Amino acid sequence: MNSIKLYNPGPINVSDDTYQAMSNAMIGHRGSDFVNLYSDIHPKLQKLFGTTSPVYLSTSSAWGVMEASVRNLSSKKVLNCCNGAFSDKWLDVSKRCGLEAESLSSEWGSPIDPNELDEKLSTGHFDLVTLVHNETSTGVMNPLKEISQVVAKYDDISLVVDTVSSFSVVPINTDELGIDVVLTGSQKALALPPGLALFTVSEKALKKAESTPNRGYYFDFLEFHKNWEKMMTPSTPCISLIYGLQHQLNKIFDEGLDARFQRHEELNKMVHDWVSKNGFNHFAPEGYRSKSLTCVANNREIDVAAWIKRMRDKHSLIINGGYGKIKGTTFRISNMGDESVDSINQMLEAITDTLS
Ligand SMILES: Cc1ncc(COP(=O)(O)O)c(C=O)c1O
Asked: In Å, how far from its chain's centre is CA 142?
């Protein structure tokens, strides 16, 4: 069905069988058909999120829930961990919501330092930390376990983690790590079209939301929870996408979580091998490299835009030419979703063929 294959890090390729599942007949969202649909997917989502807390469905892109998290959980000051385009923007979003906010910054391409985080939090100024687990712009995967261990030392500080481009690629153990909010979006590794965000909120954070003013309506965590108790959503959800999600979840659990994580690891390694074989460097340091995408430093100084045009024209596929301030000096290749050894091999052959 797709005419151009997408190897940019999201939106990614959606399989024909998923489009088919999304064309199921429409149902009402206030009746038993929707309750049955949500009830069917919910335990699978809890497993993927590594939680026994509710998993909510938001008809929005991920930014909706990213904004909601700061609005629902901060009445003192937000500490936004910033080391790439998405995490930097979260600081701006916190401020635009009228909140006090400060950044803990690392250079683009470097991970967040848990010791520096500890130092900041020990000032007593903050009640919320935001972290982008996998910075899609730089290909850096932040040390989630170490960071959550630091935040866990502070009883009154909540931790919100964006797993937009790592969810279902690597295990996310929300409860074990004591994370308050984990959120993701449909258009990355879940291999669905954009428009659905998924998130979980701890009981402690939900309690905190009760006393936070100005939560609004559309993204009020308490509205999500009240409706979740009936296996419904606050407003009319994107039902077709949820059908697609049901289908993808069945595929994910048929494959098995360990096998899925292993497959992503293997496909990611194929891209890494291509990087070294073709004389490129990684933008992210060893030990902190994403498993879902590879951000490649353009040390050969090739014309990335012209290269992508060639691969699009000749092979009907694209990678991404870098994001934000590192556009052109980096490029990014995704290995998320339903990809296989064969499809990644074909993509690597096509991008090699058009490289020179
Ligand atoms: C890590 C990360 N966070 C947040 C977003 C924003 O997601 P959306 O555009 O779906 O709101 C993206 C999008 O690429 C992302 O990669």
From this structure: 13
Question: Which of ligand 1's atoms lies nearest the C-alpha of 194?
Answer: 10
Write out the two tokens for 183. 């959120």
Q: Do domains 5-12+256-353 and 16-253 have the same CATH topology?
A: no
Two tokens, residue 240: 């077709």
| Span 228-284, pLDDT tens digits | 999 999 999 999 999 999 999 999 999 999 999 999 999 999 999 999 999 999 999
Query: What architecture (CATH level 2) is domain 16-253?
Result: 3-Layer(aba) Sandwich (3.40)
Arch. (CATH architecture) of 5-12+256-353: Alpha-Beta Complex (3.90)
Question: Ligand 1 center to residue 98 CA distance, Å?
Answer: 22
Q: Mind listing the pLDDT tens digit for each residue in 66-84? A: 999 999 999 999 999 999 9
All structural domains of the chain with their residue ranges: 5-12+256-353, 16-253
Amino acid at 216: G
Give yes or no for residue 304 having a pLDDT over 90.
yes
Give the SS3 label for residue 184: strand
User: Read out DSSP for 28-44?
Assistant: -TTSHHHHHHHHHHHHH
Q: What angle do CA 264, 269, 274 make, to 5 degrees?
A: 130
Amino acid at 94: S
Cα 136 to ligand 1 centroid, rounded to whole Å: 8
- Which residues contact ligand 1 via a Cβ below 6 A? 10, 61-63, 86, 132, 136, 162, 164-165, 185, 194
Q: Going by C-beta distance under 8 Å and a sequence separation of 6 or more, which residues neighbour residue 185?
A: 10, 61, 62, 164, 194, 196, 197, 198
SS3 call for 318: strand
In one letter, which amino acid is 90? W
